[in-house]
Amino acid sequence: MCSLEKRDRLFILKLTGDGEHRLNPNLLDSLRSTINQIRSDPSSSQSVLITTSDGKFFSNGYDLALAESNPSLSVVMDAKLRSLVADLISLPMPTIAAVTGHASAAGCILAMSHDYVLMRRDRGFLYMSELDIELIVPAWFMAVIKGKIGSPAARRDVMLTAAKVTADVGVKMGIVDSAYGSATETVEAAIKLGEEIVQRGGDGHVYGKMRESLLREVLIHTIGEYESGSSVVRSTGSKL
Amino acid sequence: MCTLEKRGDLFLLTLTGDGEHRFHPDTIATILSLLEQAKSQSTRGSILITTANGKFFSNGFDLAWAQTAGSITGAANRLHQMVESLKPVVAALLDLPMPTIAALNGHAAAAGLMLALSHDYVFMRKDRGVLYMSEVDIGLSMPDYFSALVRAKIGTSAARRELLLSGKKIRGEEAVGLGIVDSAAYDSEEGVVQASVRLGEKLAAKKWSGEVYASIRKSLYPELCGILGLEARVFATPKL
């Protein structure tokens, strides 16, 4: 499912195994509980999260086969991913996605829900596949797209041509921060970036709050307006 | 006034004749009815290309007609009528179950430019034709859906300022630089149309579901859809 490694101040979350890392309820629960574990770690506010994966896929999206066999599960998966994304947005530490494989639809949204997206250029693409597979795009996906892709033309290309965006194209579009020659180089670069960020210092709690206000539109869509403004729900134990 | 031709997968909507293709209520009504016709005949792989003959794509609303009302109030009412009547045209384009391309043969000003921007892709000529939001020069206020369209389609505040606040006549190369049009690489009317046809055929070959395409397009522009009264598909009920 997923593994967690701690290297000094870096939390390395990995989607494990050679499969497509489809975001089924079990994997989503596993990811959320791991993120909660990271959040409650005493060193969390001086740390950095790196999310990566084994194999050919970062994540190929929701488990559509599962949803076909049990339609109510599509609502469940959507709700769980929304919570996970809200958790990532409020996480009191910078987050880096080291994308070493394909990220499609919900999988692409998961990658983009990180502060930095580093990606290999030799293989793999970001792919909002909904147009090709005839899925309607939830409004909250669009909020992530809008929050993370600045150019209207790039958003149109991603959503209305179902573009398979390789790393270098992603850099030009402003979706990917930097591109690397291989999976190993990508992860190494993520670790290096993580270490630089840790060196800078700063309070992860403040960082998390800043990110919440920057991505307020996304939070409103994921967990609702009332909750996003409430410091009771998203208490970060501010040091004031 | 305007015609709708079908050439294989392509619907070609042309504002005919050599004039300024000003939007008189009758022109607007004709455009709306032709769009409804295209919608009713649409299939997978349909494409709309909108173009015009002569020096102008469109120079905007028929202000001369407004002025022949004989009084200031009368003129204001007529202008208001035209502004209101163009809203369903913009809505129809956002709702159209097929990719849309505006092939600008010439000048596009004010409401004429808004019609162009209501398309998914905009091509213009390099050698001829300007984009011009004349409102600031002639003292007209900006309808809410015009501003929403500009906010939806033009990504930088500098570009929006240049377009709306400077009274500038923007030529092809600058329009591409500002992100207002997709390409201005063409030296003739035929060149722009051919480029549109080439893009159209590429998109048509994907055989996307028009309904899904329109739904994803509308969810890209929630603010604009709200103003136009178009439901932007808030809930995800994917076809899994």
UniProtKB/TrEMBL annotation, chain A:
GO terms for molecular function: delta(3)-delta(2)-enoyl-CoA isomerase activity. Pathway: Lipid metabolism; fatty acid beta-oxidation. Keywords: Fatty acid metabolism, Isomerase, Lipid metabolism. Its EC number is 5.3.3.8. The keyword Isomerase applies. The keyword Acyltransferase does not apply. One of its GO terms (cellular component) is peroxisome. GO terms for biological process: fatty acid beta-oxidation. It catalyses: a (3Z)-enoyl-CoA = a 4-saturated (2E)-enoyl-CoA; a (3E)-enoyl-CoA = a 4-saturated (2E)-enoyl-CoA. Belongs to the enoyl-CoA hydratase/isomerase family. This is Delta(3)-Delta(2)-enoyl-CoA isomerase. It comes from Arabidopsis suecica (Swedish thale-cress). The lineage of its organism: Eukaryota, Viridiplantae, Streptophyta, Embryophyta, Tracheophyta.
TrEMBL record, chain B:
CDD domains: crotonase-like (cd06558). Transmembrane segments: none annotated. The keyword Lipid metabolism applies. It holds the Pfam family ECH_1. InterPro entries: Enoyl-CoA_hydra/iso. Its EC number is 5.3.3.8. Keywords: Fatty acid metabolism, Isomerase, Lipid metabolism. Belongs to the enoyl-CoA hydratase/isomerase family. This is Delta(3)-Delta(2)-enoyl-CoA isomerase. It comes from Arabidopsis suecica (Swedish thale-cress).
